[in-house]
Fold this protein.
Amino acid sequence: MLSGLRWLALEAKYLDRAREFYATHLDLPILREGDGEVVFEAGDSAFVLREPGGVPRGGVHTHYAFAAPPDRYDEWRDRLGESFDLTEFDFGGSKSLYFYDPDGNCVEIGGCGEGESAITGIFEIVLEVEDLARAESFYESLGFEEVDRGEERKRVRLSGPVDLELWEPQLGIADARGGLHVDVGFEADDPEAAVEAVREDACEIERVDSSGRFEDATADEALRVRDPDGHYVTLY
């Protein structure tokens, strides 16, 4: 139903400081900036920093993950280790590095990317939810599928165009937390059908003008849904 991640947006208290962090430490190319936003390229997706202001806001204390090619992982560890107190975790098939940006978002770099770029995309986003069963049902209606479930803590990992972790309030690896009021955009094979699948559970549904929002925007109109926990999902 959903075919690709369009963007992930985070809120930045001081936009210049956050812009400098991602441009300097992660070398993310800037696609556009202005009107209280900085839009970076992160593989096939956009990574957005947004000043506090209108709705939807960007996510706060969001844990999310960038993918890096396995052969670039050690390079990232050596480079970032000069500036950050890194947490490293071995998942068996791949390793990940964890550190924090100036706004308290837990940034992960996992050695699981495909391609030659140092950062190949965003592969995981963690949302904090109030009721796990309710949130899981909502995102499964959009086509996500369960791949892992926490036994001791209430969390579930869903697979889709990005791996989506749903956590009831808790701390994860490196004391990461799930994001609040996260704003994400997805490509959808049929946006109208996707919205119909969650209409009864959505808090709000609206049509929004998407033209000019990002440089790669091709649709003039999109559908934006607010889920039961206040996260925004925009469908193209």
Summary: The mean pLDDT is 93. The chain has four helices and 16 strands.
